[in-house]
Amino acid sequence: MEAFCGSRFWDSNLSIHTDNPDLTPCFQNTILAWIPSIYLWSALPFYLLYLKHNKRGYIVLSVLSRFKTLFGVLLWCVSWADLFYSFHELLQNRTPPPVYFVTPLIVGITVLLATLLIQYERLRGVQSSGVLIIFWFLCVLCAVGPFRSKIMTTTAQGHVNERFRFTTFYIYFALIIIELILSCFKEKPPFFSPVNTDPNPCPELTSGFLSRLTFWWFTSMAILGYRRPLEDKDLWSLNEDDTSKIIVQQLSEEWEKEKSECKQKEDVTYMKQSNHVLNHVGGGPEEAEVLIRDKKHNRKPSFLKALLRTFGPYFLIGSFFKLIQDLLSFVNPQLLSVLIGFIKNKDAPAWWGFLIAALMFICAVLQTLILHQHFQYCFVTGMRLRTGITGVIYRKSLVITNSAKRSSTVGEIVNLMSVDAQRFMDLMTFLNMLWSAPLQIFLALYFLWQTLGPSVLAGVAVMVLLIPFNSAIAMKTRAFQVEQMRYKDSRIKLMNEILGGIKVLKLYAWEPSFSEKVLEIRKNELRVLKKSAYLNSLSTFAWISAPFLVALTTFAVYVSVDEKNILDAEKAFVSLSLFNILKFPLNMLPQVISNIAQTSVSLKRIQQFLSHDELDPNCVETKVIAPGKDISNAISVTNATFSWGKELKPSLKDINLLVPSGALVAIVGHVGCGKSSLVSALLGEMEKLEGEVAVKGSVAYVPQQAWIQNATLKDNILFGQAPNEQKYQNVLEACALKTDLEVLPGGDQTEIGEKGINLSGGQRQRVSLARAVYSNSDIYLLDDPLSAVDSHVAKHIFDKVIGPDGVLKGKTRILVTHGISFLPQVDHVVVLVDGKISEMGSYQDLLKQNKAFAEFLRNYALDEDIEEDEPTMLEEEEVLLAEDTLSIHTDLADNEPVTNEVRKQFLRQLSVISSEGGECPNKMSTKRRLCEKKPAEPPLPRKNPNEKLIQAETTETGTVKLTVFWQYVKAVSPVISLVICFLYCCQNAAAIGANVWLSDWTNEPVINGTQHNTAMRIGVYAALGLLQGLIVLICSFTLAMGGINAARTLHAALLENKFHTPQSFYDTTPTGRIINRFSKDIYVIDEVIPPTILMFLGTFFTSLSTMIVIIASTPLFAVVIVPLAILYFFVQRFYVATSRQLKRLESVSRSPIYSHFSETVAGASVIRAYRRVKSFVDISDLKMDENQKSYYPGIVSNRWLGVRVEFVGNCIVLFAALFAVIGKNSLNAGLVGLSVSYALQVTLSLNWMVRMTSELETNIVAVERIKEYSETETEAPWIIEGKRPPEDWPSKGELEFVNYSVRYRKGLDLVLKGLNLQVHGGEKIGIVGRTGAGKSSMTLCLFRILEAVKGEIKIDGVKISEIGLHDLRSRLTIIPQDPVLFSGTLRMNLDPFNKYSDEEIWKALELSHLKRFVSSQPSTLDYECSEGGENLSVGQRQLVCLARALLRKTRILILDEATAAIDLETDDLIQMTIRTQFEDCTVLTIAHRLNTIMDYTRVLVLDNGTIAEFDTPASLIASKGIFYSMAKDAGLA
């Protein structure tokens, strides 16, 4: 080296052991000069590769770029001037050493390369180059040393040695500083880049390198969020690479590739097999078996591979950062040991200490920056994974077959999207721990072994022993969690049903029984919570005590093995900081492994779903009709057999059907004979087992259960078609929607709730029909559209739309119907019996044939009013019905027979997932119909076109008020809260005590190579440490108990209030919103708030004790604390405000994804029929992107916070070390070790403290929300003591309305206006009137669901407004319009209070014609009804309600007739039972089919809330009034 440089390479006297260090010229000229060059050349190939693949358009040559290039060229000139100077010296025979040729050459070429790179980057559209910034920074860093030494030598000698080189160096130094400064500015955005039309693009793409490194570009949002609550419009749009469009496309391509690879392999095997089967040759069965076994080896397509190919490369960049960060984390403990050595060595030069402090700081800062880059990559990968998986599942759900759909319920699929995709997202953060944890453990052990030798093994043994202890606790906790989830699920399900049927509960006065059931479940739930609280406090104890126990055992073993082993400060504190590093990977590893196990289950589920069979698009041939060509048959089906799944038996056999273009064909038959299936078959929804189906032209489809989207009424009708006002108005007119629009609050801009909640059944069906008519298709498949509407509306629709003179005349129409009156007007009638076409032809032909069809007509024809005196007829009817109800009833929801596992509703999954802050206004309302006959809102003056029935929920914004915290403290109990804080102080005192004792121990003088009283030292250390653990245990336990206490009281208050809330509240509040209080908010109070408080207190006190320790050891530190605290406080306020609002926005935008999804799954057949799959996929992508738009800033806000808070932490490390160096003479090594090792730990707790503050503020809102709903106004008391009516009241059953008026809610018009009416005991009264006349309101008034505005109702002379609600409601009986059943046993549904004997129940069942059905079930009265009674047909549910009425048998019966056409049989049965069993009672019937009330004593005709006519049916018909015109419509007059 000396020959190369011409002087010595290294001189330690010059460089180290001196107060004024300097480097030898040789070292300066070689190593220092070469470092930047080595860096740039080694980074070059990777960087060029990256630039080649990333082209973002080129950047126009700017002033900045010109200057950068100019200075680059100047630098090159300066370097080579040196080179030429050396040649010049050669010529003058002063031979310079070789280094003066080599170094300028290298530097010159490198600078030239950098200059060229500047231009190349410009052409590639790089706005700010990280590679070059680092290069210039290294150059400056390496030039500082020579710069200083040149000045020092010159001042020492008093003259300049080599004037030329001296000058060039200064020019060089100035130029690189300028280059460094210039490279920090960013260029303008590239030219010719794809046009960015974003109104609000994400600044990340255009931000400079330093800004990305420190996440500075996020600051603008943090400030904005601090100034005012963020809104949707403030969010940046997603980066191109994070959008659904790109990600889902990539993932789908990879998955398709994967599937086709597997398919090729499989095809080979299949061919062997199928050939064999075809030829029936060979050695019989054996060969076939061999082939089948062969097939087993085939691998299924692996979704994991597709995921790896799509997201792997991006994730690996993050892993690379993680590796660097892991290595860096071991530098500081080494530096700590050097620092302690420095403090001990009294004559070391001071600059050593400053250098060590600076290195510690630099190392910590680098670690921070790199760690957060790693997290950013991980989180973005997780986010993309979720987008990709959700998108793929959504696309798949639109094409799976019905049998596949049946194997996974809507709820399960929604779960795949929410829960399983979320699992992937959560795993991404920690996936790198799989390799990083073992690496960290290995390194830590290696360094520990160097420090303490074999004694380390004792400590490690303790750690390893703690792992099974921790994992045992984790397993047990998981078991408890599952159990608790089960209770929670059943509680939410029950609540969901209670809220769905709250009206029925009120009408029957059943609330106490159900309230008891909920509280019972809740008691069990809290019991499990308590158990897991015991466990959690144990694991907290382990987590806090672990590092301490490890240190204790290690030190104890180390000291006692050999008395020559001395525990000095260096050993003690270095090993402590290494143990702290070790703690994290050891705890994480088991967690990551269990996470991976969970995710693999999710992966299997997703893969299984994505591998389901898809509908065969070619199952039905579709030909588009060219205009002008008249093709005779629009639909032809030949010898076709269909089933709902390959493995199920066919539900349609040997169908032959030709439908000429423009014909109207009716399909009739009994319930469950396959009418709906036939329509589905024509749509291609069923598996075609054999035969041909051709459907020519576009199709419009009206399903049996109308499928309504959560959008405006107009959007529902247009359904993606271009608006055309004239056509739209005609359609509304034809479908009789004009009148409904006047009634709806916002006309056709009314927002319709989920599943069409604020429309009555009839309105929904008409909207669905209007959608079909508007679509103007060639073929119309109408699946029983007339059943849900009133008879006069049905007639209007048939005449105006479907019939021979309707809007659709000339189109091909297939109509499934129950209405016999329309059959004479259709072209063909097809009669189905048990899945076969039994006969077809025109109406006249079929009547002549006198087969099944004629029989069918005879049973149903309208003129046959069944009188009581026809016993024979009756028998037959009864048998028919029983058969029917036993047959699998067509389930209305999905047009497919219900196989006994009944589909759950989506509700409970959704409400559990549902949102975090305010959810979207019309969220998840269960079927609360404001029904066909209930006056929907009376027409309000149209001030506000978008008047919504459901008021949007208020989202809390801004900081949380202290009162909320106080409310929670009150619920926990203030004493307990104080005790908890006191315990925390004790715990920290003990911890500090233990460490101070340790530092004191290390300073104990060494006599003859040993330390004295080691035993006493170890004893006190152990006692202090264990005391700390014990206090933690007690503390976390007390906190958990307090939390559970609070949870119990808050939930009880909420439940109590909700059962006492008046019905009007439920009419204006979506069930989902109430359910959300019971699921999400109660969950937060149960399980989120207590641990968050625990963590918050923990981190707060840790940070506090760090400050105390550092100030105690180096009092100077107090000066720095104030500015640091201010910085910290600002960052914390900015972050909390922004992140909380981002979380709220994220949760609000999350629920629409799932509700849109469940809507899509429910309406998949409609979407496919109208060929709208593509646009629905786009909507879903849009909703997903909207959600990620608020999620992405959320991730970045955490990174932003992390970098800033950790910087504060790093400053603490810097100052602790710095002041230790300054006060070196007065300090002992033990104290320095103590204060710096405390400082090294503080960053983590500072970071978590901010997070926990934010978490706490976000979640404490739950308390507020629950409080809000526990204090809504309540209805009258259930029982008023002293005002209780006599036991046998009402004995006569007389009713009297006196000048009675009522309205639905404040601010609405009166529904009944001044009614005066008297009904004698035992009369049968029919109540009729058009939709909205106030028929249902009368019943609601009797039960005081609506309270009077003026006037009163008397029953048997008792004013009903003066007695308790339960006394009133339990003495009246109602058979409601929608039969509501609760999940539970049949017996519970009939008699929830268990007050009737079995005999009485059987008697009631017999009279309600259910005895045969119930006794045929194995569990008889304990037959389990599913949610909403889905495993009973609608008719049977209606009969169950009848049985309830028969059991109660009070003197007054109110019958609210069902609008939907239940099979006519059920209807007749109910009427007959009522006529025989309630002979002597007062019966009020709200009738839709007039033939049921033609023989009643009197009929009350309501019109617009007043009594229009009230007399016997005969005299009303004679008087030719309203009743007469209604009877005429129904063909009875």
Provide a descriptive summary of the structure in words.
This protein is an alpha/beta fold and 1533 residues long. α3 packs antiparallel against α6, α20 runs antiparallel to α21 and α31 packs parallel to α36. The longest helix has 51 residues. The radius of gyration is 41 Å and the shape is elongated. It starts with a helix and ends with a helix.
List the helices and strands and how they pair.
Elements lengths: L1 H4 L6 H4 L9 H29 L9 H29 L7 H26 L5 H28 L5 H22 L24 H6 L4 H9 L16 H36 L5 H12 L6 H26 L2 H14 L5 H48 L4 H6 L2 H22 L1 H20 L3 H45 L1 H7 L2 H51 L7 H42 L10 E3 L9 E11 L8 E9 L3 E5 L6 H9 L3 E10 L2 E4 L10 H6 L6 H10 L3 H6 L17 H15 L3 E5 L7 H12 L9 E5 L11 E6 L2 E6 L1 H7 L2 H9 L10 H16 L3 E2 L4 E2 L9 H7 L48 H11 L1 H29 L11 H47 L2 H6 L2 H43 L4 H45 L1 H6 L3 H50 L6 H42 L24 E9 L6 E10 L4 E5 L6 H8 L7 E6 L2 E2 L5 H5 L3 E3 L8 E2 H5 L7 H10 L3 H6 L7 E2 L8 H15 L3 E5 L7 H14 L4 E5 L11 E6 L2 E6 L1 H6 L3 H8 L4
Parallel strand pairs: 1-5, 4-8, 4-9, 6-7, 7-8, 15-22, 15-23, 18-21, 21-22
Antiparallel strand pairs: 2-3, 2-5, 9-10, 11-12, 13-14, 13-16, 16-17, 19-20, 23-24
Helix pairs in contact: 3-5, 3-6, 4-5, 4-7, 6-7, 9-37, 10-11, 10-12, 10-14, 12-14, 13-14, 13-21, 13-40, 14-16, 14-39, 16-21, 16-31, 16-37, 17-21, 18-20, 18-21, 18-36, 20-21, 20-34, 21-40, 31-36, 32-34, 32-40, 33-34, 33-36, 33-40, 34-36, 34-40, 36-40, 37-39, 37-40, 39-40, 44-46, 46-47
